[in-house]
Amino acid sequence: MREQAEPPSDKSPSSQLFLIGRNSRGNWVVQDQSGRRGGLFIDRTEALRFALFENGHRPQAVVMVPGILELDLELRTADCAPARADVNAGIVRKAA
């Protein structure tokens, strides 16, 4: 008997787009556009499987990121920009 999988955690249209890429350490990263769901995966196949499951099996809503994609699961409001694909985008430096 097969165990039933959990349903997607959020069905809102604003978070249906998923980004897949590699982080600076070479791990596979998946993150939804709103930054609410995602994870690190051992290979591309598992990353893609997660993204498709979470978005209702819509391959057109999965984007492969050619550069570095760092996992950032901070909660974002609906009108915020999509997750950053730049590893240094969140670094703020202050003069001493």
Give your account of this protein's structure.
The protein has 96 residues and is α+β, with helices and mostly antiparallel strands. The chain has a domain of 30 residues. It has 1 helix and 4 strands. A 4-stranded mixed beta sheet has the order 3-2-1-4, covered by helices on one side. The radius of gyration is 14 Å and the shape is globular. The chain starts with 17 loop residues before the first strand and ends in a 28-residue tail after the last strand. The C terminus is likely disordered.
In short:
Helix content is 11%, strand content 22%. It is built from one helix and four strands; from the N terminus they run E-E-E-H-E.
